[in-house]
Every structure is written in structure tokens, then in C-alpha cells.
Design goal:
CATH topology: Rossmann fold
CATH architecture: 3-Layer(aba) Sandwich
Number of helices: 9
Distance between the termini: 47 Å
Bound molecules: adenosine-5'-triphosphate, magnesium ion
Helix content: 40-55%
Radius of gyration: 16 Å
Shape: globular
Number of domains: 1
Strand content: 15-25%
Number of strands: 7
Order of helices and strands: EHEHEEHEHEHHHEHH
Oligomer: single chain
CATH superfamily: P-loop containing nucleotide triphosphate hydrolases
Length: 193
């Protein structure tokens, strides 16, 4: 089996960890969870009511160290902070940016009991495609592939990611446009926080 070096990123709640587990099992890859690496090594700036704030500078060094030691074998790096803690020189094969429709993402985050401010902040970031934009800046357009998880099962998403990473051709992104599918009223609501 070919060695695969994959990043799975995207906004909180889009399904990164759920699909990463399935992808990693299928590819016999090791999962490197950025949040876990940061938490286990004290790379945390503060714990607020809204969650933890990771020290991205420290986390970046920690992840680079792990990758330097990892000379062989497949890995899947998971986390919404991937574009901010990974270096282009990490030589990954693909950065999968998972997307989810604003309404479905809102549902998921409310189920998690996130406070309204944090829900709106994350849904707004998804509407604007910040994770995709920052991933393209960090990894380069040819490495970034976008996956819409809306209405798909985690298994379907994992399968799509695996099929795409195994192809050598440039990755594709830019087809998801939530502004085209939500109303003006929803935009106003999500952007008030
Ligand atoms: N197509 C899909 N792929 C992955 N997860 C999905 C999909 N559809 C629904 N889900 C569900 O979405 C929920 C959120 O997934 P998950 O916890 O993996 O998100 P996450 O992106 O890792 O969030 P965080 O960044 O906060 O860790 C889970 O309940 C998962 O089962
Ligand atoms: Mg997660």
C-alpha cells in the first residue's frame, strides 16, 4: 500500500475526527490529533468559557517534531488548526477541507451545547470559507481538496477522501458556496455575535 500523508481540516463540527478515524483505519495510517498534541504538551494559552486557546507557535514546533521523527508509514493529521501550525515543507500529499451546510453545522454545534456566540462565530466562519481560504494559503491550491459532508454518512466522506488522495492529479476546491444557498435573514442572524 502506498504511503499517504494527509491533513484533514475544516471548521469545528464538520466531521473531521469521525471521518479521520475511518480513513486512518482503511489506510492503516497513524492519526496525529493537533488538539491532543497541544493539550498533552501544555501548548495552551488559556482555557475560557468558549473552549481552549492553543498556542499555535508551540503546537507548530510539536507537530514538526513528530513529523521529523516519522520517516515512514502513513499518517492523518487532524485539526481545525492545521493551516496555522503546519509548514508547507511538511510535504503532505493532500489537505482535505471538510465543509458542512450552515444549518447542519448549527445543529451539530447546538447539540454539543456550544453557547450561541460560539455557534454563530463558527457558522459564520464556515459561510465565509475561512478554513478553505487559509488552507489554500498554507498548503497551496494544488494540495487542497474540498469535501461537502452535508447529507453524507461518515463512511461516504471517508471513501471520497481516500479515492481523492490516491489519485496523483491536482486537488480541486472552490465549488462550495453557502452564501448562494442561505437567505439574507440567516446571514444577518449568524453574523450577529
Ligand atoms: N459525512 C460526515 N462525515 C463525518 N462526520 C459526520 C458526517 N455526517 C455527520 N457527521 C457527524 O458530525 C458530527 C461532528 O463530527 P466530529 O466530531 O468528527 O467533528 P470535528 O470536525 O472533528 O469537530 P472538532 O473540530 O470540534 O473536533 C458527528 O456527530 C458525526 O457523526
Ligand atoms: Mg473533532
Amino acid at each position: 500500500m502506498k504511503t499517504v500523508r494527509l491533513v484533514i481540516t475544516g471548521n469545528p463540527g464538520v466531521g473531521k475526527h469521525t471521518s479521520a478515524q475511518l480513513v486512518a483505519r482503511e489506510l492503516k495510517a497513524e492519526i496525529i490529533d493537533i488538539n491532543k498534541v497541544a493539550l498533552d504538551n501544555g501548548a495552551v494559552l488559556e482555557k475560557t468559557g468558549k473552549g481552549i486557546e492553543v498556542d499555535t507557535k508551540k503546537a507548530s514546533k510539536l507537530v514538526a517534531n513528530i513529523l521529523n521523527k516519522k520517516k515512514k508509514g502513513s499518517f492523518v493529521i487532524v485539526g481545525h488548526l492545521a493551516p496555522y501550525v503546519m509548514k508547507k515543507s511538511a510535504g503532505i500529499d493532500m489537505a482535505a477541507v471538510l465543509r458542512r451546510s450552515p444549518r447542519k453545522l448549527e445543529e451539530t454545534l447546538l447539540e454539543r451545547k456550544y453557547i450561541r456566540e460560539k455557534v454563530n462565530e463558527n457558522v459564520s466562519a464556515e459561510i465565509l470559507g475561512i478554513s478553505l481560504y487559509d488552507s489554500i494559503k498554507a498548503f497551496g491550491k494544488r494540495k487542497v481538496a474540498e469535501f461537502d459532508t452535508t447529507g453524507k454518512t461518515p463512511e461516504q466522506t471517508a471513501e471520497e477522501i481516500i479515492a481523492t488522495v490516491q489519485k496523483e492529479r491536482p486537488r480541486r476546491s472552490g465549488s462550495v458556496d453557502w452564501l448562494a444557498v442561505i437567505s439574507e435573514e440567516e446571514v444577518q442572524r449568524y453574523f450577529s455575535y
